[in-house]
Specification:
The chain contains 20 helices and 12 strands. It is mainly alpha-helical. The protein folds into 4 domains: about 110 residues; about 210 residues, 2-Layer Sandwich (Herpes Virus-1); about 45 residues; about 90 residues, Up-down Bundle (Histone Acetyltransferase, Chain A), CATH 1.20.920. The strands form 6 sheets. Strands 1-2 form a two-stranded antiparallel sheet. The longest helix has about 45 residues. It starts with 7 loop residues before the first helix and ends with a helix. About 20% of the residues are buried. It binds zinc ion (5 copies). One zinc ion binds next to β6 and α8. The site of one zinc ion (ZN) has 8 residues, from loops. InterPro entries: Enhancer_polycomb-like_N, EPHD, Histone_Mod_Regulator, Zinc_finger_PHD-type_CS, Znf_FYVE_PHD, Znf_PHD, Znf_PHD-finger, Znf_RING/FYVE/PHD.
Amino acid sequence: QVVYDMDEQDDFYLSMINKRRLKVNHCYISHELFEIVITFLEKQWHLLSKRIPPKQKYFDIGPDAKEFQDFKNLKPGKYNIAVLNALVYGSDDGVWCGPEQDQPCAICYGSECDNANQIVFCDGCDIAVHQECYGVVYIPEGQWYCRHCMTAKKKEAHCQFCPSTTGAFKQTESGDWAHVICGLWIPELTFKSPVYMETIDNIENVPKGRWNLTCYICKQKCGACIQCANKNCAQAYHVTCARRSELFMKHNLDAGMQNSLHLKNFVSFCDRHTPTTWLENHDIKEGIKKTRLYYQENKKDENNRNSNNNILRWESSIGTPILPNLIWERLIKLLEYFQIDGSAKLSSDLCKYWALKRETKTAPLIKLHDPYTTSNNIKIEEIPEKIEMANFLNGNINNLIKISDDIIKRQQLTLEKFDIDLKNIGNIYFPVIKLIKPVLEELLKLDEENNRLLWEFKPSIFKGTKLEYNIDILNLESIVLKFKLNQYSQSLLEFNNDIKILFDNVNRSKQKTNKVLNLKKLL
Ligand SMILES: [Zn+2]
Ligand SMILES: [Zn+2]
Ligand SMILES: [Zn+2]
Ligand SMILES: [Zn+2]
Ligand SMILES: [Zn+2]
C-alpha cells in the first residue's frame, strides 16, 4: 500500500533526476514509482528502528569498577548516566547536579521558585529554567520544550561564544545559537526582548580582542571569553567553562532578572583571585580538572565521529538517519522488479534524498499504523496474566453498564416526580381548573351524543330586538377556547356565568330551525 504523497520539493528533485537519466538514455521515473520508493524506505526504516535498542539511561557500577574509584562515596548500584557524567566532567547546565527535585535553574543556578516564577523542565534535554530567566511568559499544559529542542530537536546546539553544547540556548539575530548565560555574562551582549529573554543582540559590539582570547580552562581559542574581575589579572575563560569549573560567578539575579539585565553587574574571578568564602563550598581546582577532561574526551569523540566510524550508528550527530547497505540493496531489487535501468545509482540517490528529507522533517514522512506490534510482542507466559487483566476489565465494564442503567432509571423517576410536582403546583395555584375540567368534559360528552348542537350553536342578531347577546359566548366552542386560554383560572363564578349566558342565549333564541328547537328541548 502506497501512502506517501509527493510534495513540490519531491517534484523538483524528480524532474532533476529524470533530466539526468535522459542524458544517459535511462528510462523515465514516474511519480507513482517515486511514491512507492519513499513508502518502501519509510517502512524499511520503521521496521529497522523498532530493533534499535533505546539509548542507555542507566549505568551499573559493580563492586570493583575502576572508572569510579576516585568517587569513594559512590556505592555500587544503578546510576543515571547524567549523574555520573556530572560527577566525572562537572556540569555547566545544572542537569542532574543532585536529586531531581532540587535541580537548579540552568541560568541563575538558583533552585528557589514561587508561583509567579516557576522552574520548568524541558522534556527534550532535561534542563531546568526559571520562567523569568528563560523568558517563559506562559507555561503550557503538558509538555514544555526549550527553544532549541522545539526548533532544532536532534541537532546538537553550538554556542557562538563558547564550546559547550549543553545548557539553555536562545538564538541570535542571524539564527545562530548561543547560551543565555553567555548572553548575560559577556558584557557587550543584550537581549532584544528582556521579557522573552530572546534574540541575543549587539554581537557586533563585542570587541575583537574578546574573540581572540584563549580560555585558560579548556585551552581552546573559540567564541568569546570573559575575564577575571581582579584589575591586575588578565585570565580569560568561557562563561560555560567557568560554570562547569565552579568558578566564583556573582550576579544580582536575586533582585530579579529584569533588574540584573538593567544593571549588568556580573562579576567573576579566576581560581587565584577567588574570595576565600567561596572556596569553602567549591572545589575549583577539581572543577577545572573535570572541565579539561570533559573537552579532551569530547575531542576524542569528535575525531571518532569523523573517522568513518559510522558502522554502529543509526543517526548522524545532526539526526540524519543512516541507512544500512541492506536497505540500499533491497531498493535496487525493488527497482529491478519494476525494470528500471541504472538501479544502483538511482537507489543510492534516492536513499540519500530520503535521508536528507528525513533530517529536515525530523519525523516520519508517512503515518504507519502498526496494529501488530503490540500483539506480536506478547510472550506465552504473559498470556494468563493478560487474560486475567482482560476479565478484570470486562467485569469493570459490566459494572459500568449496571451503573448506567441505574442512572437512567433514576433520571426517569426524577422526571416522573417533576411531572407530579408540576401538577400539584398547578392545583395549588389554579385550583379552579381542576373543578371546571370534569364539568366541561361531561358537557362536551353530552353535546357529542347530540350532534354537537351546543358546540355549533349560532345565535342570530336581529336589528331592533331587545335581546342582548353576549358576543363572547356564542357557543360551547368559545367556552372551551376560553378554558384553554386559562381565562377561568381565577374564578369559578365566571365559568358559571358563561354557561348560564350560553343557555339563556339558546332559550331566548327566536330561531325556528330544527337544531335550535331540539336544543331547547334538551336544555
Ligand atoms: Zn533562574
Ligand atoms: Zn531542551
Ligand atoms: Zn555559550
Ligand atoms: Zn573554555
Ligand atoms: Zn584572576
